[in-house]
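FIELD: query
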Amino acid sequence: MTQMPLDDTETLGEEALLLLFARGDERAAEVLTLRLTPVVLAHAYRLLGDRAEAEDVAQEAMLKLWRMAASWRQGEAKVTTWLYRVVANACTDRLRKRRTVELEAVAEPEDGAASVEAQLQERARVDAFQEALNALPERQRQAVVLRHIEGLANPEIAAIMDVNIEAVESLTARGKRALKAALEGRKDELGYEDD
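FIELD: result
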């Protein structure tokens, strides 16, 4: 099959790119990989709190996408919804195997503009947030991450989590309350001041 010019391929949606890849278009695979891998990796990291494990999950999810491309049933689900579900399932499996969640430092990219103190403060905030996120029950954590970090709408989250919209709303609300309670007593420590 002849490949589409890169400019044309980049404007296509994920489903169209997946279908082109299934027909042998390597450029479509390249564009889809560049578009979806960061999203998948970020989602896996938020659910696991471990960069190395998140990278493994992201790689597994993308490999599953390539393997099933030829059998993709057009119009049944969005590619991103399918991928979020694959990532969530893989993360759930890993969390069950762990049984205990270890918090590892979140490496923030250094930029010359922030002072060392500001970098340490931001790292403490990120660590505290990730620690509070990790303490949530698995389904609450997944709903909070999908809604408030990934920015997905409740119907899409319901499809990913295989629950109804009311369950998503309940899980998200309970998760937010638990996060607020976990972080409330640490405002001074984390450098947040009440207005």
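FIELD: remark
Residues 26-48 form the longest helix (23 residues).
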